[in-house]
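2024-03-11 09:14:02 DEBUG pipeline.ingest accepted 1 chain
2024-03-11 09:14:02 DEBUG pipeline.ingest length=272
2024-03-11 09:14:03 DEBUG pipeline.predict start
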Amino acid sequence: MIDKSENKNGYLQPNAQLKFPKINVAFDFDETAKKPFIRNSREAFLENYNVGNFSSNRLLASLNAADFSRLQPYLKPVLLSFGEILCEPQDRVRYIYFPESAVVSNLQMLEDGRTIETAMTGREGVTGLASIFNSQPASDWTEVSVAGSALRLNAQILKQEFYCCGTLQTSLFKYLGSYIEQISQRVICNNYHLMEKRFCSWLSMLQNRHHKNKFFLTHEQIARYLGVQRPLISNLARRLREARIIDYRRKEIIILDSPKLQSLACPCFHAI
């Protein structure tokens, strides 16, 4: 089904009639526990959001005014829900996402059915970047790990503009290098580092990308990202709470002492 904002070829069309008042929006929600609140907030957010001359996504913010203005009419604000699957293995990547307050994870499935996170993307980067360099289908799951806002762009538009915008090329290549470095480091981390240090690194990475100290996550969900059993995560979380480094409630993790948490993280956090 073709989106109303696209033509028959799948290209997004700028809508000259669509003008939103520019306001500052602070958005945070629990996707599972506050559904009526989310529905109202979602409608208000999308109604009032304005893709102006600046985005809180750092990659977009690094573009010069001319290059950003070429993309601006095609950037669509969206709210991503926790657990939402943006892409599955063998899917054709139709859309690129520039997270603002959302955080997105890339997941692989292990032979025993467990999943494990291979990369995490927040406002520093973009998802689905490989699609502009080749036409191969996706090789992993792309899932929303922290609900929030993002800017969505048709992948064909980005591929087209990549060859026209100098600062876009520079920014995407720079991010691609750091993304590959993250994946390489995570391979080492997942195989050789102690689980407690991996857990601290993961929480620190999440905070670094989301810029908040509270996350709506359960121990079961964290275990999925780290490829372990839930009881292990519960035991580690209890130790950190006893040390007053984190706190947790039902479906909620709160970081109390970021410097201490980072000091307990494995070297991968600082390297990434």
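2024-03-11 09:14:41 DEBUG pipeline.report The radius of gyration is 19 Å.
2024-03-11 09:14:41 DEBUG pipeline.predict end
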